[in-house]
Each structure stands twice: as structure tokens, then as C-alpha cells.
Design goal:
CATH architecture: Alpha-Beta Complex
Keywords: Hydrolase, Magnesium
Distance between the termini: 18 Å
GO molecular function, one term: magnesium ion binding
Cofactor: Mg(2+)
EC number: 3.1.3.71
Helix content: 25-40%
CATH topology: putative 2-phosphosulfolactate phosphatase
CATH superfamily: ComB-like
Shape: globular
Protein name: 2-phosphosulfolactate phosphatase
């Protein structure tokens, strides 16, 4: 297995083989949590108008450059999603729109053989899936801030996944120390923006709470995020 390390939106566009799109703060921490809260389906969409076309039928979750989107139900905050509880999501379709993670996944789908969505919360499951599928090339894409600037949380999550694939050691305590001191974490501490709750980083830095890799797949006019059976690989 050859592992390529890439960053931000240009990295997602360049990803080949199996692309692992990493967005710790916060898109792909939210995605596993939505499934744990019994969402029936999760759609990934960048176009706000298309998202709003499903308003009422689906729960709309997301942001544009971190800020809430008018007409959406929730920002992509793990804390606010968990606080909403399963009654908000159980049995419903959720549409997720984010500036970094979702945009990166949609870009990668154009040329990669397959696209997985990852964060610390499902990193081990993602690595297990990659081993099971026997991919010859894996592109670990750390999406960074706004898809433009590398961010410590995504780069260190890439380190963790690479270590699980046999690519060296990883120290999560050192990673936490670096991440919490980084600009991408500090923006949560001011507590002056309710859509950036201070609790989010603590949730996002939890490891391996979700037992499934999540694959992004085109289905008709939409892209769906689908949890994969444990131990499975990419189907022929």
C-alpha cells in the first residue's frame, strides 16, 4: 500500500486510489454522530439552493465559512447535534453542507476510485476498512481550515490513520497539545459565537467511538454517505 499525504481542496482534487477525506473540526465528526443518532440517510451537498430544496423533508446541517446558513436547522457542531438528541434525527434524511470536508469529498469523487470520510472518531474503523479493501494507493487528504490552510487537527488525524496502517508511531497526547494550541481550536474558546461552542474540540478529539468507515457514493443526483459493514472492503 502506497500512502500519499495531501492537504486542502487542491489535495482533494489530486487524490487518487482510495481518498480519505479528513475533517476533524467538524464535518466528519458530525457525520458519525448523526448515524449514532439514527439518521436514516446522510446526503452531502455543496450547493445551498439544492440543500434548501429539501427543507422540511430533511434536516439541514451545515455552514458556510463556519457561519450558520439561513434556512438550515443546525450548524455542523457536534455539541449542538448531540444536544438536539435522537428525536431530531431518528428515521430522517440529513443533508450536510460544509466548506471543507463536504467540498473535499465531492471533489475527490471525480477522480478517486473510492472516497472515505474520516476524523478521529472513526479513524481505526477507516484504517481497518483500508486494510480489508487491499487498496494499492491511499490518499490521506487533510482538509484544513476552509479547505485553504492546513490545520493541525486534520494533519495529526492523518498521522494517526497512517500509523494504524503501519506507517510509524503516533502520540495522541502530543497531538492534543498541538491541536488545542492551534488557531483552528482557539476560535472555539472565545465563546462569542454560539455556532462555535467551546465543547466541540473535546468531542472532535475523541478517538474510535464509531465502529464503521463511511464511504461517499453518488446515487442519482445526490451523493450519499454510507456506513460500511465492519471488516468489509470496497466491493468489486
Amino acid at each position: 500500500m502506497r500512502i500519499e499525504r495531501l492537504s486542502c481542496l487542491p489535495g482533494a482534487e489530486a487524490a487518487r486510489g482510495v481518498a480519505v477525506i479528513i475533517d476533524v473540526f467538524r464535518a466528519f465528526t458530525c457525520a458519525p454522530l448523526l448515524f449514532r443518532l439514527k439518521a436514516r440517510a446522510l446526503l452531502l451537498e455543496a450547493d445551498i439552493a439544492r440543500c434548501l430544496s429539501l427543507r422540511g423533508d430533511a434536516v439541514l446541517v451545515g455552514e458556510r465559512n463556519e457561519e450558520p446558513i439561513e434556512g438550515f436547522d443546525l450548524p455542523n457542531s457536534p455539541h449542538l447535534i448531540l444536544r438536539s438528541g435522537p428525536d431530531r434525527f431518528a428515521g430522517r434524511t440529513v443533508v450536510l453542507r460544509t466548506t471543507s470536508g463536504v467540498a473535499g469529498a465531492l471533489l475527490a469523487l471525480r477522480k478517486a476510485d473510492a472516497v472515505l470520510l474520516a476524523s478521529f472518531i472513526n479513524a481505526r474503523a477507516t484504517a481497518s476498512y483500508l486494510r480489508a479493501c487491499g487498496a494499492s494507493v491511499v490518499s490521506l487528504v487533510a482538509m484544513g481550515t476552509h479547505g485553504e490552510t492546513p490545520a493541525a487537527e486534520d494533519e495529526r488525524c492523518g498521522d494517526y490513520i497512517e500509523s494504524l496502517l503501519g506507517g510509524g508511531s503516533y502520540d495522541h497526547i502530543a497531538a492534543i497539545n498541538e491541536i488545542l494550541a492551534s488557531p483552528s481550536a482557539r476560535r472555539f474558546y472565545a465563546a462569542d459565537k454560539p455556532y462555535l461552542p467551546a465543547a466541540d474540540p473535546a468531542i472532535c478529539l475523541q478517538r474510535d467511538l464509531f465502529e464503521h468507515a463511511i464511504r461517499a457514493e453518488a446515487e442519482g443526483d445526490w451523493v450519499r454517505a454510507i456506513p460500511q459493514p465492519s471488516g468489509s472492503g470496497i466491493p468489486e
